[in-house]
Amino acid sequence: MKYDYLVVGAGLYGAVFAYEAKKKGKTCLVIDKRDHIAGNIYCENVSGINVHKYGAHIFHTSDKKIWEYVNQFAEFNNYINSPVARYKNELYNLPFNMNTFSKMWNIATPQEAKDIIASQIADLNITEPKNLEEQALSLVGKDVYEKLIKGYTEKQWGRDCKDLPSFIIKRLPLRFIYDNNYFNDRYQGIPIGGYTKIVEKMLDGIEVRLNTNYLDNREEFDAMADKIVYTGMIDQFYDYKLGVLEYRSVRFETEELPMENYQGNAVVNYTEREVPYTRIIEHKHFEFGKQPTTIISREYSSEWKKGDEPYYPVNNDKNNALYQQYKELADKEHKVIFGGRLGGYKYYDMDKVIAAALEMCEKEL
Ligand code: FAD
């Protein structure tokens, strides 16, 4: 065998594994079918602006160990995610907090906001929510639901809220303070210079082959390494023999505009049904850019078909049961370890994917 490990996928999970394996004196070959490293956290530099090619990524965690770990590879800026919601021509701060409520009802105090929400919930008389609409209404009342949740959620899922299961919205955090910080985590920021550099540093001194699909030559690759760390889709690994796991996909329409500042914020959600995209990202604002032009991406949520880029796993009962069947097959493999968001059919934030990779390294290396 030429290598101790073949790592399929140069995303965050694969890169953390390869970095830790190298530290322990193991040899790795990392392959990726794309023409770049970093998987979905890849940033492409266009006109001096780091464009988050596979969707906006904000690093946030409450885990001090993970924060220190990732800070070995980059310095982070002090970006705080504070999205704005646009409903028709009304603009609201997110997440739902006193700024949102004060704009919506022209009120000032937490008690006034609580009273309005409580009276709207009481009017509805919902005891057991039967669908997402009833669930959301019973948590936040009519105004917040209709202006800020309904249209956005329907675009995201491609379905009416009445036809979506209630479990999608288990709780909706309402904040009765004036605070637009989207995350509650202790640590937050964007790596200065972009995410790709983090992965570049992790893979420094490790052999990487791009434009290389494991599934095109699996016998040849299997013969090259003692073990395989596989971060691609688990159902595809098994040639979908038990069925296809479903995802939601996202289509990005990106353009450079000849102006310095288009929307004044990195993230603006369009919460009305009539606008076809869910949000517009203006990339330069993640890094407080002052470039003369700007780059924006409109995000359209779409149904995923085999062959599309998989983004969000649809973790309903049917897909979870199918994943369990694939996992049973995976658990019997001696040579292959499955990991990452596609190998585990799970939405992982970056901090969680690093934690999962490090946990696996503890066991494996
Ligand atoms: P990936 O990055 O997908 O890497 C897997 C790699 O494997 C890919 O490069 C792929 O090309 C390669 N591959 C697959 N199959 C094969 C094959 N057969 N042969 C060769 N190579 C293969 N997290 C946050 O913390 N904050 C955020 O703000 C945030 N925003 C997000 C926004 C969106 C739209 C999405 C979808 C996710 C977001 N995330 C965010 C999550 C973050 O993207 C993931 O945690 C992270 O990218 C997962 O890394 P990974 O290595 O598991 O997967």
TrEMBL record:
Per the UniProt entry, the Enzyme Commission number(s) are: 5.4.99.9
Record-linked InterPro entries: UDP-GALP_mutase (IPR004379), UDP-GalPyranose_mutase_C (IPR015899)
The UDP-galactopyranose mutase C-terminal domain covers 147-347
How would you classify this enzyme at the top EC level? isomerase
Q: Where are the transmembrane segments?
A: none
Q: Which GO-annotated molecular functions does the record name?
A: UDP-galactopyranose mutase activity
Q: Which UniProt keywords apply?
A: FAD, Flavoprotein, Isomerase
A Pfam family hit: NAD_binding_8
Name any cofactors this protein relies on: FAD
Cross-referenced PANTHER family: UDP-GALACTOPYRANOSE MUTASE (PTHR21197)
Similarity comment: Belongs to the UDP-galactopyranose/dTDP-fucopyranose mutase family.
Which protein are we looking at?
Answer: UDP-galactopyranose mutase
Q: Which organism is it from?
A: Lachnospira intestinalis
